[in-house]
Design a protein that fits this description.
heterodimer; A: about 425 residues; alpha/beta; Rossmann fold; Dimethylsulfoxide Reductase, domain 2; nine-stranded mixed beta sheet; five-stranded parallel beta sheet; 18 helices; globular; B: about 160 residues; alpha+beta; 3-methyladenine DNA Glycosylase II, Chain A, domain 3; Alpha-Beta Plaits; 2 domains; two-stranded antiparallel sheet; two-stranded antiparallel ribbon; about 10% strand; binds iron/sulfur cluster
Amino acid sequence: MKRYPCSGCSLLCDDIIVKSDGLFIDKIIGACLKGKERFDQVSAQNRITSPLIRKNNELINVSWEEALAKTVEIIKNSSAPLLYGFSNVTCEAQRAGMDLAREINGFIDSNASICQGKILNKAKSQGINLTTITEIINKGDLIILWGANPAETIPRLLNKVLFSRGKFRMTGREIKTLVIIDPVKTASFRVMGVRDLALIIEPDKDIELIQMLKEECCSADSIPSGGVAGIDKSDLKRLLLHLTGAENGVIILGQGVLQPHADYDLIEELLDLLQLINDRQVKGRISLLLLGGHFNMAGFDHVALSSYGVSGKLQFENKKLVKSEDTIVSKINKENFDCSIIVGTDPISHLPHSLSSKLARKPLILIDNHSSATSRIADVILPTSITGIESSGLVYRIDQVPVELKKILNPPNNIPSDEELLNQLIKKFNGGAK
Amino acid sequence: MEIYKWLPKTNCKECGKPTCMAFSLDLLQGKVKVDDCPPILKPKYKKQYEKLKEMLGSEEGQQKELRINVDEDLCDGCGICVTVCPVNARYCPPSLSGKAPEYPPEKHQLFQVIGGKCELLNLEHCRRLDSEGRERECHVCETYCPREAIKIEYV
Ligand code: SF4
Ligand code: SF4
Ligand code: SF4
Ligand code: SF4
């Protein structure tokens, strides 16, 4: 039976069996609840299937011509457009978004830059291993969840990395050690076995733990007898033993570590620690995996790098790439933009109020397939098909492995994919020239 | 295993079972009585005998049926039970790598995630019943379900 990848989250499980007559989906086998909900979006209540524009403070259905004309008008009247989102679209659409940004001299950034991009770059430049899911399934023996609760966010991750035994071993769960470092007992703690290690850390003390481990790496027995950050000395020693003794260990960093720390000290210290440990490692190595929710969170950097030679955000002036220190946050904060094009995300509910209110004050064009807090304040809404179900394309999995999403159904009203729509917009600005 | 704890645990086979563990499972299902274990009637096990009698109470000796309940409201289809169940592992090789088993399911298969929820398919092949003389203490599906959606019980 044919299997399809799921675009429900960044794990992109590629083993979903879909029973469909080409018009509707009647059975989904293998996908978790979150994945099934993704498939349900096709016929969801809040689906948008025709373009809308705001007239007299009310959103009304209009023709595509009218909606596109309004979009062009807003962009033409703008000298500093902002393009943001792009982690729930394909790489092809990300590329089109960057090209559009170039045509209209805009600034483009993805959701990923807020939490992931920087860390990944730093890890790469330090030579820290980034492992893949397949490798963990087949060879992993130590899984450390740090501020990560995949049981809630990426439902099938624990099944794959912890319970599966892979192709080459006779045992699975039994030889894998799980360590969870978290201030609260999350749902993921429930899969712990007797040999595993649960470390309840005091909130925001991760950095103390890392510094202690670093010290202990350099000169043994520097752990104070009372422990550190609420964790016992003996548990710390066990943690270090696991870290240095594992053959194929992986630290999975979750939102708990990635998000709240605007300063990157914590991450830098952690990467240093990893380097120290890998130097002392005799049998193997410890690698890193960053958890993010959106299904193509990892793609934006790859596309920016291959199309424009830089990773992360891009600023264009006079149709040329220019250097910029700005991030999406500083741009919005300084109100250094005069209209925004939001693609496949809902910043009005995700960003802190101080930022979202500034975003809402300027004309906003939304490209998405369902209504959200952002659609409620948008000036133009251009609906697109649901990627991975109604349109195909390349996306990058959390472990930076490319996966090809496939088309299963035709979209309603023949609405375009994100990629097609962005390319249409590009044509409106460059008259069809490449 | 509460019951197992109170048995002599010597695996002497006098009851006709290969191990005390096997005996304890039959006891739980009501297939045998505490008195079917000769050693436990000896004075030195008196306390344990009384404890067992008390635990099993009046239900002793009444045949009970294995049930595995999957709570649909709690389950989020993570597929851990599909992977850890030893019966699935034996008959559906893809599940060993965390992959969803084929559809339609194999005839021995116990769990399959359909429509985002776990479905229990062939309870009669559960290790606890279909053991061919091996110990039948398996309960990994119940132990590892992160949602605590699986409950094994005898009714
Ligand atoms: S874990 Fe993510 S990718 Fe896998 S089935 Fe669930 S939602 Fe889809
Ligand atoms: S007779 Fe009692 S002690 Fe001997 S194996 Fe059976 S249960 Fe265990
Ligand atoms: S008790 Fe064991 S054999 Fe039975 S369903 Fe659960 S995991 Fe499978
Ligand atoms: S392990 Fe629990 S939550 Fe996961 S699929 Fe099985 S029953 Fe559902």
